[in-house]
## 1
Amino acid sequence: MGFITPNLADFDLKKWRSRPYLQRIRPLAQHWAENGFGTPGAVYVLYLLKIVGYVLGGVAVTAATPGLGSIGDVASWWTEPIVYQKIVIWTLLFEVLGFGCGSGPLTLRFVPPVSAFLHWLRPGTVRLPPWPGRVPLTRGTRRTAFDVALYAAVITSAVWLLISPANAGPVPRENALGLIEPVRLIPLALSLALLGLRDKTVFLAARGEQYGLTLLVFCFPFTDMIIGLKLVMVALWWGAATSKLNRHFPFVVAIMISNSPLQHVKWLKRKLYRGYPDDLRPSKVSGFAAHMGTVIEYVVPLALLLSDGGITTTAALTLMVVFHLHIMSTFPMGVPLEWNVFFIFSALFLFGHYAEIGVSSLDSPFLAVLLLVCLVAVPALGNAKPHLVSFLPAMRYYAGNWATSTWCFRRGTEEKLNAHITKAAGMAKDQLVTIYGEDLAELMLHKGMAWRSMHTHGRALNGLLPRALDDTEAYDLRDGEYVAGGILGWNFGEGHLHNEQLLEAVQERCGFEKGELRVIILESQPLHRQRQHYRIVDAATGRIEEGYVDVKDMVTRQPWLADDDASIPVRTVDAGARPVDAQAETVHE
């Protein structure tokens, strides 16, 4: 791997391009197992500088609070309550501008590496309302001047809060400066909520399920506020742990560690798989690491919640800091790096400095109800009926159980996206071609498809190709996140951003003919069922087929499936009928 050149698989590119799609995936998946994405060293430096910018920016804007102290005096004021408030607001602003999750080359953003704020400030771009048929004045998929104004209001109100002084109200801490006046939080909370009803993409990018809820918690009295903030953090950890109680997560662990720039020992990476290079199912080593991570996210936050200081708190905090540093060291696709920095700071601030404030001191019944709804009811619904709730508010984080899709463009038709859709930046392929040329650009896009294929859901998507297409080799296959990232300005693993709703918006603008664009959509696995719902949709004619795939059939296959059978067993669903067993028949025009 060079500093500015990617580490790519060493094979004859012309011969590789002549192979069937799944055989093109095979060497790339094998290369990933030892080398990850093959990211140039300069990209990792870019991400490290971004983390430094996030930290220094947060310190600088916080230090500007009147009466707090200079940047050089951080050690004397980092435990002030208003500091945590401003770091939350700074992080929300950082994310909603697009500088956090879903930014840079590891999310197929190259030139420019951050474009979300440019996209959302541009009228005419695509927006996706969450409930267009139920919430008045939210229909349509075209961004208007009103949407741009709402987005600008979110940014402006966040900046206003960052420069706001402290209200010297009753805060039961010696030398405490105070808190932001609660009434000042209303513009940000209101504008974010209104914008979210018009465009769910921006709301998810702002991590509204976490930082939006935290803004509401800031409105309660000090002790209740600290308890509420602690419960939010514990729920995030426990939600992530619960979502990993599945057969998908060991695959994620193997793939994620393979991508770590700090792990250069290839024999160790091979141990993550059952039989590299021909069997890329996760080994017992990956399974053990997955289970240990789940145990840590259950047990350590409980220890933090129940302890009131001393060695137990210190040991638990040390474990959580190491845990999040390990996640950051792997540079996972989607790059939730600053998010993990925020978790580290939150753990030290809430459970370290305020360890003695226990949950039994909670007085406000209104806060209790708010937390029960947002931290229990919504995640429970999202795990039981994942099609109704984004994986983010459902707290199903990096667990491998995501809604996904594959977009299949008949050769030559993908250019319609550039011709008819307003965007702030080119599609990922256009950016890659500018840097590396046509051949390497296509190879790197296939590397992303190989990454997807190594996950359980990717194996299912590949197995559904014969049911969706009459000739796979006549199509250019693109991951749904690639499509959503270019058209919506942002993506972070949310498959509901590239399902039928986005397809309808694309078709409205591009007018694909029958058979020119087909999309395979796979929903997440419900917690209580070992199957996942799929749909195959033609942009021009609508749904072709729907049914279910069983998780057991995904975890037993290779990313490239089998040479003699590129299908996966399904149970199809006819309208108004029960599921029926179906062999892998090709769906023809």
## 2
Amino acid sequence: MDPVIVVGAGPVGLTLALALARQEVPSVVLDEGPGKDEPRPARTAVLREDTAALVERLTGVALGDHGVRWTGWRSVRRKQVMSEITFDEGDPGPLHIAQHVLTGALRAAVADEPLVRITVDSRLDAIEQERSGITAHTRGPKGTWWRGSYLVGCDGPRSTVRKLQDIRFPGRTAVERHAVAALRAELPWEGRALLHRMPPWRSSGPSAGEVTARPLPDGVWRLDWLLPPGKDLVTPDILVARIRETLAGWTDGSTPAYDLLDTGVHTVHHRLARRWRAGRVFLAGDAAHLLGALGTQGLDEGLRDADNLAWKLASAWHHGHHEALLDSYQTERRAVVAARLRAADQVLPVLRGSGALRHIVPGATRGHEALLTDGHLGRGTVGAPGAYTDSPLAPRHLEGEIPVETLPGAPVTDVRVTAEDGSFVKLRDRLGRGSLLVVLIAPGTGVWDRKHWVSAGVMPRLAAAVTALPHPAELLVAEEYPGAPAHSVLLVRPDGHLVTALSGVRPADLYAAAEATVGGAVKEAEAGSGAR
């Protein structure tokens, strides 16, 4: 069968290609550029724990060695500390990393992956779809026709794929603008990120704004100043004045020595593509959505797009084209991003000084700080990763379903599990392989060798039920899971979202849940052409 064509060699496109390769699906990555990225210290990404873990699984690179996991967060208004959070192993902070470093790690992994072919200086200019596949044409020194099974546009805000498919991209332009600087300096809160609203050294009014400081390795910081509405030019002199003023304000009046590495102006747009799928063509990342006001991170959502789509394309590639499973990508991911955009648009007038929606957070300055903190840290309504609670893949009417602390459709908690070979691993380490995960909660198994319990109790019956599932599945055992009683069974999707929790071994419920999760893909493919 033909490879998947991935248009765009940014973090989302490269992540998708690697995720497909891990599930034994070949891909061709069309890179419009020369195949390398210019180092830009002021262009960075903030990743939640699970998206950072996704990239680490695919690249084999410990991102914490190349970025900074925040040890804490502080929110300040004028001179008053409004909130302070200290992160620990049980509540890890986000990872802050330069985007060119992240992309470099992905490119290095792609170079070592035989199932991924990357072609540089290849600009897409035509797409043709047929019932059996897709053809794409690129121009440039290596201009040619490419044949694929599916095509995914990961080609950014000005997506050629989106335009060729005539997909509208409505939304709001210039929701926020920020002046940005990356500099090396000693600040008084090493490893901790800071949000400072209404700093006392600034005049009152819209220009007072806010400034954030986020640490990077080697004593480097990224500083962002919220700019007033409009298109006023930010000159180098104005930016240097802001840097000196801000550093002096944070260090009791005297500007400390600093080394300015990079600058820029970051403009935030809010847009959402009307469709994320057109036949065998899909959109992901900035080609499908733009968000970023209030500290929210669009790249993090783009990586979630890739994770969601990869296992569905892999299933279709191996087992045959299946509409319901492929349609679920748009249904799940677009709903999640749309909810975050709505939340941000609702609270923006409150946080930026308009009284139009002040009733949402009645007179609560601390409430304002909490909303901004949620955006920056990936929590709450504004920032938290979405759950696919209304997914068309969710099973219905399971008699044995029980509640646990993770809602169906939400990302699972990363607990230690025993794999089929007897090794102890983290649950997230088993994700992204194309298989469903079945997790038995069995207290005490962690202290006994697997050979003593693998053939005892409910294990033989559960193993037989897993073998009979309509999609490949891996059986794991955990001593505990938040809110799950002993002998409960969890079914987890390949992208780490909980399908259901069952009370005990219930083969019929487990089969029905697994069949719903893959949309009946295997059964339908076998009934149809089934051709690869």
## 3
Amino acid sequence: MHQVPGLQRPISRRAFIAAAGAAGVGFVLYATGPGGERVALAQIPGGTLAPGDVTKFQTPLLIPPVMPRADTLPARGGKNIDYYEISMRQFAQQILPAGLPATTVWGYGAVASAKKQGLLLHNAPSLTIEARWNRPVRVKWINELVDEAGNHLPHLLPVDPTLHWANPPGGLDHRDSRPDFDGEPEPYDGPVPIVTHVHGAVGVGDESDGYAEAWYLPDAQDIPGGYATEGTWYDFFAGKAEAGFGAEWGPGFATFQYPNDQRASTIWYHDHTLGMTRLNVYAGPAGFFLIRGGPHGDDAVIDDRSGTTAVLPGPAPKENDKFPPNKTYYEIPIAVQDRSFNDDGSLFYPDTREFFDGIVGPYIPDGEFSPIWNPEFFGNMLIANGNTWPFQVVEQRRYRLRFLNGCQSRFLILDFSGIPGVEVWQIGNEGGFLAAPVNLSADHAGQVLLGLAERADLIVDFTNVPLGNHVLGNLGPDEPFGGGVPGVDFDAADPESTGQVLEFRVVPAVGPDPTTPPQHLVLPALAPLPAETVTRPLALIEKMGMGVDANGDPLEGPVEALLGTVEGGVLAERLWMDEVSENPAVGATEVWEFVNATGDAHPMHVHEVAFEVVNREGLVLADDDEIAEPVQPDGVVTPPEPWETGVKDTVIAYPGQVTRVRATFAHPGQYVWHCHIVEHEDNEMMRPYRIGPEQPGQPSGSP
């Protein structure tokens, strides 16, 4: 586990010190009072449904079926295109165990050529898109957040309109902005914008990347007059899609295309609307997108005993499989998320800033604090593949489990150490196979650290696990994460709730295991990136403000999470609306340095590219244990963790350190980089960047 130098030192610590942001029953928040003393705030519940009232391990783990294609399209050059029509809808789903109420959620699902196959359609998480290397996928993404009468549905969760957000009520002139208000506004309850991002897609055109200002409303019959129905970049990207691959865009939909010419990898898709990602994703829409084949696919893995192709655990779900399946799967994708619920089964998400740290104002427009936005959110229950605390029957043999951290703000430390006899190896991360298998059981206490949006491709060997029921634990904290060792540097998750993920029910193997032991796997060779020509120091910053608590006493807390640049050793804040400051040349290889001047670890994601993790280095601290100015590294350099070898799209940037990644920026266009704590990216911790020159006709006055 990564031990961050100086973890115990308050490096630009936020006002709530150690336990801030915890959302489960029984956790206590702390704030800094006017004299600097640590002041306990009220205990913070989640929803009205307590975790202890939810029976665990009653529901079998859903293994997501494969998304059915609508068609196969011929294309010039002989590469056929897999075509999908996928919509986002609202529906009821049994997330809690049977006997408790269903939950209204949103999810993606196929709208063509699917019902005849008898498949589960719309679901949260959604069906898996199975893609082949070098075979394009085209998706018509449809916003169907309307009722049966064709009228728009309001959001399931409270929408804070004081952020820099999509802002449909602003019309063409003020969409994608931070509005001005004369008084404290009510939560937005109008039609919901969406735009889908395939997280980890490399080489995709910017028109298909899910740019945060390319959102669109549903094609509802009751859109209020004067509303913008599309984001600032929608029309420009629609023209690019039509010219580039003949795709049609229209009311309530956009059509994106993914080349899939990257390494075989575990990527995923989710909403990415400006200032609303936290809410839209929490409502449910997300799914796996697996790229298979090619020179770095499964067939390129070698068994070192024979020199022949290795055998990895399988099968995985395939298109046209029955649902429920009539076969046993040995490769299973697992999305772990955190949620809170109310007694009626509805999702709970806070409707006031007071929930987070007790700050009751002054709220915008009388002060700096947004009235609803919470700097982080920690659900008090874990769900895996759409159910609270499910179980999975496994045989005494090897399985391939692809894990995704799909939580809001919660870092996960998956803990297999409580399962006797288990052996866990990591063979891949976001960008595909690692340089070599990593024995997590022998060398890392059977623990898997996953920042937000990170993935881990694991071989889990149950051969020597005793028959019976065994729980996969989680040691990641119920609070902001800064690195360190669970139980030493921070309290691990509540062992009775968020400290449990799912239950494995181990049964005898039904036959011999034909798979290659992971210690004998030779993974596909990695091609190193060219040497960099530019190094960009980039800043991770937190803006603090002074508010008051319910008694009128002063209380400091975060106002925004920010990105910026480091100029002459000085941190320079930049907002989403500011001009592009990161502009790599087409084909350039650069090192980006994430200089973390906050008290939290941030999972940093760069769209469009896969990168190498170069190293991490500490920052010089002043006598008061704050980061010294001018900012400078301290010479203590650590290499990437073993599970960070290969290529990645998301990296943990620890507090008080500079984290360096190297990437080649091969395709021109307008993209973004951001923190994947979704509450952060929704309030200024996201920046646009451009590869190559400005594009003719691109929106003016927009970042």
## 4
Amino acid sequence: MTVQIDRRSLLLTGSLGLGAFAVPGFAQTPNVTQARGFTHSVASGEPGSDTMLLWTRYVPTTGDTAELRVEISETPDFARIVAGGSQITGVWRDFTAKITVDTLKPDTRYHYRFVAPDGSFSPVGMTKTLPVGPVDRFRTVTFSCSNMPYGYFNAYAHAAARDDIDLAIHLGDYFYEYETGDYPAAKDQVAGRVPLPSTELFHLADYRLRYGSYRSDPDLMALHAKHPMIVQWDDHESSNDSWEGGAQNHQPNEGDWNARRAASIQAYREWMPVSDEPWKAYEIGTLATLFRTETRLLARTKQPDVAPLFAATDPTSALKAFRDGLWMDPAVTMMGSQQESWLAHAMAQSVRQGQRWQVVGFGTIMGQTVMPAEAMSWLSPDSPERARGYLLAGVAAAKVGLPFNYDNWGGYPAARARFLRKAQGLGANLVVLSGDSHNAWAYDLGQDGKPAGVEFAGHSVTSPGYETASKTDPRTIAAALIRTNPELKWCDTSRRGYMAMTLTPATVSNAWIMVDTIKAKSAAGRVGHTATVSRGRNIMA
């Protein structure tokens, strides 16, 4: 009973509402009146050519339930309602609502709003359906790794101000699960951007509260209200380096992992504009098929742990034995056999249908990356000991041809090979989008000595990259990484932002947008690099 009373108190005092953290333009100490009603604006997702999922959250003045309606119109004055729907929401789903509207027109921009039982309206959102038939041009923006205490979500603000975007994509780490002062440390926090709760996230109420804090950010709300978004989780929506049976940041004294995992999934599906389908394909006319995947919580094998190998009597021999044995185990999987089979069949169908491009979103990087031998020279006297150990281990692993990151596809080489060989066999025009690393990368993906596709890997919205561990010129670091890794064609290890991709029948071009700062509120940004692939080539120009 105490837990229920505390939970209701949180709901009605606005802890999940607009005052969940201090941010310019929002009350820092909300009262009950402020918290009730439409607390977190609106969002849209799961786009189709004639359907769209619409999201909001509404806390009623009294009671634990409310019936909401949604209205959708082609004009901002809602003079003619062309579609709609209704849903009963309540405390059991944290007062969130997701209504899928159909009978829409393809390639059409719509305005939508929710209507409360008392007749009041939510903020108005905009969304756009997917096209059918031939498509000359389609533009997406892609985000990952948004850690609120590290800075302002200026990447979201920059993209929300654009009118040339058809679709937004978020590849995960939408928020971070750490307690206040952990990541980032207190000295690195930006004032006024500390989300609730202050503790690490373990329970359903914790995850809901963290979503409420993040979703109160005005730039994130603006982005969701402006563009439809396809979302997928990575690890921090549950816990760092999560896999099917646990996580690096989940300890035995922190409760049952399956309960924590279930709580994180439930809160995600409540608070995000996403269906309950674990993976899905989206048709962009005859131009492309976009695939949303799941590579964390449902079937991923535990990441290889190479740390004990460095304590062996002969670390080099131990690393070689691992390289030639367990590292290549075909049972080690990112997606699991069910999803692998689904994706293979869905890609085959896309190719048979004549789709010009097959675009696959993964949470982590697929491109092969080893640590350059000169990496130890990047360290400064005040570099953290953790960074020193990470680079030292990476350099030693590279000497025997092993990567430095086993939480991305570098820890799952047999699964990577299966995916790329399937794409090659289908004759796919493969474009992989990925996040997680906090840095920006462009790879030509190869398998068995032949091109298989390209990868555009996105830098973070705010989470730090190499620049926090090294004072070395980022251009020096990038040059060494490119020199050492044949698949890597370009990288940036010091700036934050998002990716903007333009698909045409003949080419796919990706721009890495770099924001000017994350330490102050600003929507300024610029193109830092552009890469292009031509259809039929599977390598960048």
